[in-house]
Design brief:
CATH class of the largest domain: Alpha Beta
CATH topology of the largest domain: Sulfite Oxidase, Chain A, domain 2
Bound molecules: ligand MTE
CATH superfamily of the largest domain: Oxidoreductase, molybdopterin-binding domain
Radius of gyration: 21 Å
Shape: globular
Mean pLDDT: 96
Number of helices: 6
């Protein structure tokens, strides 16, 4: 394991701040991702907070401002557990980079997403105790880690709409898969916003503010917004484009790996699909001929409305080159867009185009090429 408790074969996009995703094969067939395998995305140096002195300030448009210790959270509120997938808005950016360059952004593969069972208290219960004023429309989260990639450099922060914040699924969490939340994932307490892009799940949270406007923090007002393809992200004004919230329907082929060599015959293709926003994954189609014909994959149960669905399909492959494609449909009958060209944007967010791998298929022993 490395210094952050991650497996040695993580694909490290940056050592400091530490940004890493698991090799995609490691996500296969695990509904809950092991902590040592769970991706991690950090904009600044990882802070080490003392849980005994940590306090959560609850302020803004509330009747009663509060300062809560970890013991207060444990003792004064009901404990809740939610299985939720976190997905970074930059997941699968590598596919957009193949279309056109995106300077200064990490080439995340399909591993910037993972699923855990999170335990803590409902943010709504804490806000209810404070008494939220009717004018509050957003809830902002503030953390102490300094992000030098922000303009100007600033501590990390974000916000979500009040309606989402009052949902029973949004947690202030201190456990992950039944274990204490690791430092790199936000100890002692992080926000978990199921169904929303990972950027809204603020780690090392120290302040929760009910307010009329979205957070003015760089990561809400400027980054993690979808800009049109011709926008210049360096000159785009804060507030331009639109803020990313619910995760767009997505899927990825995890096995076999792109570029691998397989023997002709029945080959199992497997991966994940995630609908985000509390919708369900209804169907996953898999093609062995580049999208000409399709078969429907077998889907595992969806562990919660907030979790991905794993899938697998066996397809017969003939010797030669095979283009394997997968696409998901959600319960609102939305389907993923076909090509990364259609979703390219200057910060490289939300590549939810069809997942594609190309395989070299060799003849089985005794079979003619
Ligand atoms: N919270 C803080 N304080 N600082 C950060 O850099 N990164 C965000 C979010 N919360 C971040 C943060 C982003 S972009 C993502 S995708 C998720 O944390 C990643 O969570 P993880 O590292 O636990 O996987």
């Amino acid at each position: 394991m490395d210094a952050w408790g991650k497996r040695r074969d993580m694909v490290v996009h940056e050592p400091d701040p530490y940004n890493a995703e698991p090799p995609q094969d490691a996500l296969t067939d695990q509904v809950l991702t092991d902590i040592d395998t769970f991706y991690t995305r950090n904009h600044g140096a990882v802070p080490r907070l003392d849980p005994t002195t940590w306090r959560l300030r609850v302020d803004g448009l509330v009747d009663r401002q509060m300062e809560l210790s970890l013991d207060d959270l444990h003792d004064r509120f009901d404990r809740r557990t939610v299985v939720a997938t976190l997905q970074c808005a930059g997941n699968r950016r590598a596919g957009l980079l193949a279309v056109r360059d995106i300077p200064g952004e990490h080439p995340w593969g399909p591993g910037a997403t993972s699923t855990a069972e999170w335990t803590g208290v409902a943010l709504a219960d804490v806000l209810d105790t404070g008494g939220v004023a009717a004018e509050a429309r957003h809830v902002a989260f503030a953390a102490p880690d300094m992000a030098h990639d922000a303009e100007p450099p600033q501590a990390y922060g974000s916000s979500i709409e009040i309606d989402k914040a009052m949902g029973a699924e949004v947690l202030l969490a201190w456990q992950m898969n039944g274990a204490p939340l690791p430092t790199v994932h936000g100890a002692p307490v992080r926000v978990v916003v199921p169904g929303y892009i990972g950027a809204r799940s603020v780690k090392w949270v120290q302040r929760v503010t009910a307010q009329a406007e979205p957070s003015a923090n760089y990561f809400q007002a400027t980054a993690y917004r979808l800009q049109p393809a011709d926008a210049d992200p360096h000159t785009a004004a804060p507030g331009s484009g639109f803020a990313l919230g619910p995760v767009a329907l997505n899927c990825a082929i995890l096995r076999p790996d792109d570029g691998s060599v397989v023997v002709a015959g029945p080959t199992q293709v497997s991966g994940y699909a995630f609908a985000g926003g509390g919708r369900g994954v209804a169907r996953v189609d898999v093609s062995g001929d580049g999208g000409v014909t399709w078969a429907q994959a077998d889907l595992d149960e969806q562990a919660s409305p907030w979790a991905w669905r794993l899938w697998r399909q066996t397809i017969a492959l003939q010797p030669g080159r095979a283009g394997i494609v997968a696409r998901a449909w959600d319960t609102a009958a939305a389907v993923q867009p076909e090509s990364p060209e259609h979703v390219w944007n200057p910060k490289g967010y939300v590549n939810n185009s069809w997942s594609r791998v190309v395989l070299t298929v060799t003849a089985a022993p005794g079979q003619q090429d």
